[in-house]
Amino acid sequence: xxxxxxxxNVYRDPHGYPEWQxxxxxxxxxxxxxxxxxxxxxxPGPLYGWAMIWTLLGIFAGGMALNLTPCVYPLIPIxxxxxxxxxxxxxxxxxxxxxxxxxxxxxxxxxxxxxxxxASLTGGLMGAMLQNSMVLIVVAAVLVLFAASLFGFWEMQxxxxxxxxxxxxxxxxxxxxxxxxxxxxxxxxxxxxxVLGLLTWVASIGSPWLGFLIFxxxxxGLGLPLFFLAMFSGQLEKLPRSGGWMLWVRKLMGWVLVGMxxxxxxxxxxGHWSPVSLALVVLAAGLHLGWIDKSQAGFRxxxxxxSGVAVACLAFAAFLVMSWAMRGPGVAWQSYSEExxxxxxxxxxxxxxxxxxxxxxxxxELEEVTxxxxxxxxxxxxxxxxxxxxxxKGGNPVHERLLREYGVKGVPTVVFLDRDGKERLDLRLVDxxxxxxxxxxxxxxxxxxx
Length: 450
Hints:
Elements: E1 2-4, E2 9-11, H1 19-22, H2 49-66, H3 75-90, H4 94-120, H5 123-129, H6 133-150, H7 160-166, H8 172-186, H9 188-205, H10 208-231, H11 244-265, H12 273-292, H13 301-325, E3 334-335, H14 338-347, E4 351-356, H15 361-368, H16 374-383, E5 385-390, H17 397-405, E6 413-417, H18 435-448
Parallel strand pairs: 3-5, 4-5
Antiparallel strand pairs: 1-2, 4-6
């Protein structure tokens, strides 16, 4: 997608992954026809590795928690009785029940996954807009507005005709499929704000397959409890009775949306305020959910659940603050100038040039993790000249010339120059890289220039 950096149209993912890299075309590290010595690793998207695993687990848990909201919980006995009735009609017992349950899950997953893909396909527009600080603030405000609905300050209402149409019952496997397709409509007053907030985040990622995967995972979390309860409908009487605890779960989802709002507005905040703001949100959520909120339940474990969530939030907030407070100084960057490069050649030091922008998530991750690693900072100060080119705003003719000169197609882009001022094309970096691997590139650059 085309994203205006203020200098020229460049093709990049809204989180910084260049379009030419994802299509398998020659990367900026090697002109067409010239293969680099070391092929740049392809990231499957803005989420990968352990970050993706933990994110999907969190979304799955969120989907399961949505079953405990006031709008979804009453559907549990209705759904189970429907499945049981369908199985009894065919006389096929448990096998028929499983088939109906799978049709239900398929319908639910199909609806939500298509929503995720549709949202991600707007990523081009979303990614371009997310360069504007006012747009980020508006997105965060909308998420807070949705959170206010979950906190009970206002109610999301759908047209009655749509709700009645979705609540109709049909027979056979199509009936089970239809129930899954329309669950989101019936339960929209509770799950709608959470799903809409998730849609906004998926749109900012701009990856259709990730949009499908994220909402498919959410659907599994939302549908599996109903599926298993349908399989063992005799356990229904062991479920806790409805009550104030469901309102507590709804407020928990509201705090998740507030955290997402902080995530969106973080590029606008000064660097040290981003982790502090998130820590304050987690702290406020713990205090509210654990002690300020007066919701009650008819089962004994509920007070322990509230206290456990509160303690976990307080511990996580303390971890965020301590991680920020104990973080050492970062790399000492210099602004680009010809004099800086000339002095580096005279002293025989390699040069690392970091093209970045404040709205670029991998850029911030590089700065906060890799370029604050103690060993990276020490090596950079001793043996390298570190240059930062900030392309957040346009209008700088020097930066425009550098983008053309180095063939920078998107950010982040880290360029490695040897002692003679020549670029090591095989070392060029266009994605986040952990400190240990970045140190390997620094050692390779230093060894090559010896």
